[in-house]
């Protein structure tokens, strides 16, 4: 259900400009698929109580928990990610924002207090083993 909006885009469409690729121009929506490539397929409960911030979580077949956090706001947001039942040691982080085209930021230590800063208008994916 959450992937539905992404699925309605066509790969290439020159006449309307709605395609993921328009001529030789790659549109930012295409990079969303790179993020979903790493996302799990077994959805687990996730919720956000922060305006303009949405969170999704899913388990992958390899056991990794994936947490995708979307900040639709025009300002960065610092939020607490609380993973019930555990405090991860580290997570591989991917970022899609104005400066990163769904790029890996590498494995980063998990903050002890769970506080993470989300850039404005961004999608951040945390992969926790």
Describe the fold and architecture.
This protein is mostly beta strands. The protein has a single domain, classed as Sandwich (Immunoglobulin-like), CATH 2.60.40.1180. 10% of the residues lie in helices and 42% in strands. The chain has helices spanning 4-7, 29-37; strands at residues 21-22, 25-26, 42-44, 53-59, 65-71, 77-80, 90-97, 100-109, 115-118, 122-128. A six-stranded antiparallel beta sheet has the order 3-4-5-10-7-8. It has a two-stranded antiparallel sheet with strand order 1-2. Strands 6-9 form a two-stranded antiparallel ribbon. The longest helix has 9 residues, at 29-37.
Can I get a quick summary?
With 129 residues, this protein is mainly beta. It is built from two helices and ten strands.
Give the number of DSSP strands: 10
How many helices? The count is 2
Q: CATH homologous superfamily, by name?
A: Golgi alpha-mannosidase II
> What is the second-level CATH architecture?
Sandwich
Order of helices and strands: HEEHEEEEEEEE
Shape: globular
Helix content: 10-25%
Distance between the termini: 25 Å
Overall radius of gyration = 15 Å
